[in-house]
Amino acid sequence: MSKYTHHHAAVFLMTFLSYAFFHATRKTFSNVKSTISDEWSPSYHNNTVNYTKPDQIWNTRHLFNSRKDAEPYLGILDAVFMISYAVGLYISGMIGDRLNMRLVLSFGMCSSAITVLVFGVVFEWIHFYNKYVYVIVWILNGLLQSTGWPTVVAIMGNWFGRYSRGLVLGLWSACASVGNIIGAFLVSGVLDYGYDYAFLLTSSVLFAGGVINFFGLVSTPNEIGLSLPDKDTVVHPKEYSVVVNEGEPREAINISHVVPNSEQLSDEEYSSNHLFNDRETVDEDAPLLSSPKPLPVSPQTGDRPTAIGFCSALCLPGVALYALAYACLKLVNYSFFFWLPYYLHNKYGWKETVADDISIWYDVGGIIGGTLFGFVSDRFQHRSVIVIPMLLLGIPALFTYNSDLSQTLTMNGILMAVVGFFIGGVANLVSAAISADLGKQGPVQGNSEALATVTGIVDGTGSVGAAIGQILVPVIQDGLGWKSVFYLFMLMTLLTALCILPLFIREVKDLCKQSRMKAKLSRFKGLSVSNERAGGSENEDTDQLFN
């Protein structure tokens, strides 16, 4: 596409707010944990009174003997949500690639809003309290919420091309963090009236967003007669064929590149930035943002590409490694999401509304980090070379936040923002921009029916790790304390970097190779100009350059 239109702005805003509203409803539960644990535990006893009448009034909500007994159950609710969410992501990704993504997203938003309303409002208003029913409803909520991420990422991938994907999706991926902030503000504004009003407010917003998407969202440019951004392409008019690797069997590299029709590059820009081997097979060592041939499906024909299968998507280069890496990283990211307000309230004794407000700074850091990392990775045209250094810097940031420096509100907020910058920022980049890259590469280049499946695999595997984390955090905290929980976070961050290390090594080698090719090509063009002035031939230039 030649430029962004008002359709792009509308899609960006609607998908951004859609997932923000999803996260606002999730944030509601994490922000009211202390209130819920008080409601579900007896708080009427003192040193002289051991029994209070009438028993029906005081003991109706008595699910646990104390707040401490309620903590493991809250962790179980988080875990079953993430497990069902992970399973749902694998399924929702394939459903999104086969059905209309607008309908899938709208259904997920409205049905999830109804489920949250039942869990937090209806059960409270009719005074129904049952641990097993709560688990069943929360499992259903996880399955319905899983329809959100694969569909919104796929819709964004359909509208925005690979050349700006890092910046656009890096900025757009702040939707989760913005949703956390929206949820925290909404909850803190009504929590004094009861936790049921917090669930009522956020679920109403989510339902309204689903209705708006049903009538207004356009899932792909083809629906309104526009072409997909990566399919409106032409071959650069000049091709350079040079011989490389002297001493080995010579191989001609065709340096033609597919570029947007409306964004023709100059010879110098084109030659220095895009040196790719024109092969029919997919190269496992090829960089993630390289440009293989698009599928020969014309947007004017209206033909819908065949949706990719689960196993085929899993076997795409880089998908398995990034999925495993995201499992480790999402354990850390979602532990902050689920437990940060509770941690601040219990460790420092701050009021729950204060803890909710200060926890926002983690999301602020994630917004800045995700946007910046996306912009820089676009410039490098590689992702892993940005991700690994940021992860390694995130380890000392976690260690510092766990120290005595975070005792005051101000320092806690600053250090929390730094942790969010490195951990949350990388998580945003992996879950959005990198997932979109993985779903638009190699044999699925130009196939709009593959992106949701790939996104579901990456985020689904990440959610499995997050589910394990929600079980480990309360157990480790109860037995060893919060310091040991943060040591777990540091270990998982390191494991994330190790999972991506093979891709990092490939991309560093690729950058070095491109740097050498730029130097050779620059010298070749200089010799060509010189020989043309002297009446020489191009073949002599080539021999002089590579012999």
Sum this structure up briefly.
It is built from 20 helices and four strands. The strands form two sheets. It has a two-stranded antiparallel ribbon. It has a two-stranded antiparallel sheet with strand order 2-3.
Helix tally equals: 20
Mean pLDDT: 75
**Strands of the largest sheet, in order across it?**
1-4
The stretches of 5 or more residues where confidence is low (pLDDT under 50) are: 232-284, 288-302
What fraction of the residues are assigned to beta strands by DSSP? Answer: under 5%
Please give the largest β-sheet: 2 strands, antiparallel
- Subunit organisation of the chains: single chain
Structural class, by secondary structure, is mainly alpha
What's the end-to-end separation, in Å? 42 Å
Radius of gyration of CA atoms, rounded to a whole number: 26 Å
Query: How many strands in all?
Result: 4
Helix percentage range: 55-70%
Shape category:
globular
* Helix-strand pattern: HHHHHHHHHHEEEEHHHHHHHHHH
What does this protein structure show overall?
Belongs to the major facilitator superfamily. Organophosphate:Pi antiporter (OPA) (TC 2.A.1.4) family. It is found in: Membrane. It is a multi-pass membrane protein. It contains 20 helices and 4 strands. It has 547 residues and is mostly helical. The strands form 2 sheets. Strands 1-4 form a two-stranded antiparallel ribbon. The protein has a two-stranded antiparallel ribbon with strand order 2-3. The relative contact order is 0.14. Mean pLDDT is 75; it is low at 232-284 and 288-302.
